[in-house]
């Protein structure tokens, strides 16, 4: 585009900045101007550029802006960049063409070059520009302030919204955390209280049964001392009450065992007909008292010997039959067993107990299996019982894989029934070795036994056990060594059972004295601590053998029988009971492995590999069972790993394992358990590192 | 064939793989026995028909396969199947009561599991078969 200085000067005359400038001056300025084309969108100058020219818009339109923020639009006839004439500072805004624009550009040097010859004009222009600058600055400041306020408000709004959301999230998180902690705490407390409860019950079981056994044992003895008529009545009553109490006690302990998931069934040979006979023998008199017929109907297709838990099966049948008799006033109670299926390996049986008793309404049936419930609240008063029996039976049937249910009608009677599957035993008879054989007991008939025992309770148990099993056994008791010698000299005996620890004179000394004159009479030690040193000292002083306490029939009668046959207990060398190894020395001595393998490196590596594999499996299990308080499982795990420590040359750790194992025997929890298991785990971990290094380097 | 026949047949039953392997290796090395190993008693029972000369049986057998019968029960079953079957009991159970029970049930010997037991079992097998 070409434009003459005259035309340009005329255009300049239109703009207020130049309005008062004489035309010749404008023409001179026009001569020094350059024409610039700015297509739409082009930025003419940027914010922060240093301005050095005045722009006059001849055509098109521009915008004054700061990034996206548009301050103003300017059209043809207006100008911008005028402040560059008085201020060399950076531009505060960018200018861009919004439509194709044509601009006249007059450089600052040119402006001043022209105006220097016209001082009055120069003064006017500078004064005007200064005013504009102040105005513009004020406007801009205003706009900026507004913009800043707007931004601040936006930011504040956003911030407060974000803060609110964050606070809400935080509050929810804290709430969830609190709830989680609470739940965890409750769970821990529940678990702990459950453990306490189990521990308490385990203790109570022992604490309660011991005095009960003493009461019953003493009563039994008194009954045999020809009591007067009135005394006999009282003693009978004591005996009956004790038995009832024991039944209740056992029921409470059973239900707690069931609820703790600790009840497990045995799996051994059983004989259904014997179980039924036993039930009738136990409850027959009660049925007879009430003039209720007690009948048994057993399927003739019953296999002779099955496998399962005879004690628990009998317990279920005793409970159901006992209840049936209890709630039947006239008529009969029938125990029926039907074979439903028999595939040669297993046999499905239906047990049912039918009565003609008071029966139950559907509402009563609905709650009859719940713990501590009986069909009606006054049932307990009228018929007695803990209300636990059916609940226990229901659980036990469940353990057998069956479901105890009842069909009943008020006034007509009830049928309790369950179907269970039992294995068929390969044995035709219950194995003779299972129990003490009758032949063995018969062979002991009429023997005269002197028992030296200072603990009354143990004495009663031993006496009762002997009297129950050996026909016509004659028993004399002595409470200490001196008394034993006196009674021994005064009487005639076939056998002496000798407690080792007794007051006045102990069993060892008494045996020694007796042996001075009698080398032959069998003397068996009764000893609770079956550790080698004590048993050895019994044998050294002339005893013939020993019976471990508490007594088990097989051991008790087996030992007596053997002693009278002149046999000695044939037993291996057994090390002394372990004591806590003073210093846990996880040291590894590879000598044993080297000897065993004849120094063969391949075999060494093989065994070490087996140990590492086993340790890797057992370590985490030991940790979890310890943490979970599953001490029986812990004991078994420690038992399993114990010989392996000895094999790989860690005898101290082996001893530590033995110590832990024996500490956990019989459900005890030694106070230093966590410490010793901790040491065991530490030793094992260290050994794993050592052996892994060995495998890598050797 | 004749060499193999001259060897005595021994069944080893233990759920502790390490002990089982070591004992088996130890006895193999004597070149006198034909060894079969079992990690459960049930597996051993299933092959009793092969008439082993001796069964060496661990007391606890349920650590690897839960619910497995323990050694005492297996001992009873072995004895009820064949009361003449020779059984040596093996255990790290150091109690007279346990030892006594196994012997009452018909085990010939009761060997405590430790680093002496390989030699001990070898010596006993020498005496028994």
List keywords for this structure.
heterodimer; A: 698 residues; alpha+beta; Jelly Rolls; Heat Shock Protein 90; Rossmann fold; seven-stranded mixed beta sheet; 21 helices; B: 129 residues; alpha/beta; five-stranded parallel beta sheet; 6 helices; 5 strands; globular
Describe the protein in words.
The complex is a heterodimer of chains A (698) and B (129). Chain A has four domains: 5-117, Sandwich (Jelly Rolls), CATH 2.60.120; 268-432, Heat Shock Protein 90; 435-564, Response regulator (Rossmann fold); 591-697, Four Helix Bundle (Hemerythrin (Met), subunit A) (Up-down Bundle). Chain A has 698 residues and is an alpha+beta fold. Chain A is 54% helix and 16% strand. In chain A, helix 7 runs antiparallel to helix 10, helix 18 runs antiparallel to helix 19 (631-647) and helix 20 runs antiparallel to helix 21 (673-697). Chain A has 21 helices and 20 strands. Chain B is of the alpha/beta class and 129 residues long. Chain B has one domain: Rossmann fold, CATH 3.40.50.2300. Helices cover 43% and strands 20% of the residues of chain B. Chain B has six helices and five strands. Chain B has helices spanning 2-6, 17-29, 41-46, 71-81, 96-104, 117-128; strands at residues 8-13, 33-38, 54-58, 87-91, 109-112. The two termini of chain B are 20 Å apart. The chains are: A alpha+beta (698), B alpha/beta (129). Chains A and B meet through helix 16, helix 18, helix 19 and helix 20 of A and helix 2, helix 4, helix 5 and strand 5 of B.
| Assembly level | heterodimer
CATH H-level superfamily of the largest domain in chain A: Histidine kinase-like ATPase, C-terminal domain
What fraction of residues of chain A sit in β-strands? 15-25%
Helix content of chain A: 40-55%
In whole angstroms, the N-to-C terminal distance of chain B is: 20 Å
**Overall residue-averaged pLDDT value of chain B:** 84
Helicity level of chain B: 40-55%
Query: Main beta sheet of chain B, described?
Result: 5 strands, parallel
Rounded radius of gyration of chain B (Å): 14 Å
């Amino acid at each position: 585009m070409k434009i003459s200085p005259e035309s340009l000067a005329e255009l300049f005359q239109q703009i207020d900045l130049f309005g008062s400038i004489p035309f010749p001056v404008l023409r001179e300025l026009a001569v020094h101007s350059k024409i610039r084309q700015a297509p739409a969108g082009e930025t003419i100058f940027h914010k922060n550029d240093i301005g050095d020219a005045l722009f006059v818009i001849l055509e098109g339109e521009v915008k004054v802006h700061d990034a996206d923020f548009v301050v103003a639009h300017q059209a043809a006839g207006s100008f911008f960049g005028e402040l560059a004439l008085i201020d060399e500072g950076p531009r505060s805004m960018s200018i861009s063409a919004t439509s194709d624009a044509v601009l006249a550009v007059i450089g600052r040097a040119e402006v001043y070059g022209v105006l220097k010859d016209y001082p009055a004009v120069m003064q006017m222009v500078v004064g005007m520009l200064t005013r504009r600058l102040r105005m513009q600055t004020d406007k801009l400041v205003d706009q900026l302030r507004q913009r800043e306020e707007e931004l601040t408000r936006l930011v504040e709004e956003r911030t407060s919204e974000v803060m609110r959301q964050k606070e809400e999230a935080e509050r929810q998180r804290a709430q969830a955390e609190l709830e989680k902690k609470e739940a965890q705490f409750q769970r821990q407390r529940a678990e702990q209280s459950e453990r306490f409860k189990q521990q308490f019950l385990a203790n109570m079981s022992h604490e309660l049964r011991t005095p009960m056994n003493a009461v019953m044992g003493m009563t039994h003895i008194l009954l045999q001392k020809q009591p007067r008529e009135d005394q006999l009545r009282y003693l009978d009553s004591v005996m009956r009450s004790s038995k009832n109490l024991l039944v209740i006690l056992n029921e409470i302990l059973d239900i707690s065992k069931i609820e703790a998931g600790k009840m497990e069934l045995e799996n051994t040979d059983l004989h259904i007909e014997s179980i039924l006979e036993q039930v009738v023998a136990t409850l027959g008199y009660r049925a007879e008292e009430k003039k209720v017929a007690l009948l048994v109907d057993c399927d003739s297709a019953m296999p002779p010997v099955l496998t399962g838990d005879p004690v628990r099966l009998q317990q279920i049948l005793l409970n159901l039959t006992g209840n049936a008799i209890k709630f039947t006033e006239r008529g009969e109670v029938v125990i029926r067993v039907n074979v439903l299926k028999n595939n040669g390996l297993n046999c499905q049986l239906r047990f049912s107990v039918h009565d003609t008793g008071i029966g139950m309404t559907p509402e009563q049936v609905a709650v009859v299996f719940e713990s501590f419930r009986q069909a009606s609240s006054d049932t307990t008063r009228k018929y007695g019982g803990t209300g636990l029996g059916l609940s226990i039976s229901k659980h036990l049937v469940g353990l057998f894989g069956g479901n105890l249910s009842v069909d009943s009608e008020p006034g007509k009677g009830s049928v309790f029934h369950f179907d269970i599957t039992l294995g068929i035993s390969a044995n035709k008879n219950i194995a003779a070795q299972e129990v003490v054989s009758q032949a063995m007991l018969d062979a002991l008939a009429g023997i005269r036994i002197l028992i030296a025992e200072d603990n009354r309770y143990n004495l009663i148990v031993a006496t009762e056990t002997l009297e129950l099993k050996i026909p016509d056994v004659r028993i004399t008791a002595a409470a200490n060594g001196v008394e034993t010698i006196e009674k021994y000299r005064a009487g005639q005996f076939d056998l002496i059972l000798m407690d080792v620890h007794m007051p006045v004179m102990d069993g060892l000394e008494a045996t020694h004295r007796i042996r001075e004159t009698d080398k032959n009479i069998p003397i068996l030690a009764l000893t609770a601590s079956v550790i080698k040193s004590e048993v050895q000292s019994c044998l050294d002083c002339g005893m013939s053998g020993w019976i471990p306490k508490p007594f088990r029939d097989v051991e008790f009668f087996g030992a007596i029988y053997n002693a009278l046959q002149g046999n000695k207990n044939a037993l291996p060398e057994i090390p002394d009971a372990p004591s806590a190894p003073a210093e846990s020395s996880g040291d590894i001595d590879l000598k044993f492995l080297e000897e065993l393998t004849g120094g063969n490196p391949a075999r060494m590596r093989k065994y070490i590999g087996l140990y590492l594999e086993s340790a890797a499996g057992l370590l985490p299990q030991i940790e979890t069972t310890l943490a979970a308080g599953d001490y029986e499982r812990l004991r078994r795990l420690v038992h399993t790993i114990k010989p392996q420590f000895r094999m790989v040359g860690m005898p101290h750790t082996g001893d530590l394992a033995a110590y832990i194992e024996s500490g956990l025997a019989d459900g005890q929890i030694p106070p230093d358990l966590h410490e010793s298991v901790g040491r065991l785990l530490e030793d094992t971990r260290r050994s794993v590192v050592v052996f892994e290094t060995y495998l890598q380097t050797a | 064939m004749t060499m193999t026949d001259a060897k005595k047949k021994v069944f080893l039953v233990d759920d502790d793989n390490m002990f089982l392997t070591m004992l088996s290796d130890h006895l193999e090395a004597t070149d006198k026995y034909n060894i079969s190993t079992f990690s459960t008693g049930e597996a051993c029972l299933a092959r009793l028909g092969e008439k082993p000369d001796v069964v060496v049986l661990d007391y606890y057998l349920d650590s690897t396969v839960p619910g497995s019968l323990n050694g005492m029960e297996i001992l009873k079953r072995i004895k009820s199947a064949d009361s003449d079957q020779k059984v040596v009991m093996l255990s790290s159970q150091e109690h007279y009561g346990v030892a006594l029970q196994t012997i009452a049930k018909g085990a010939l010997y009761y060997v405590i599991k430790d680093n002496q037991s390989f030699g001990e079992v070898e010596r006993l097998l020498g005496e028994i078969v």
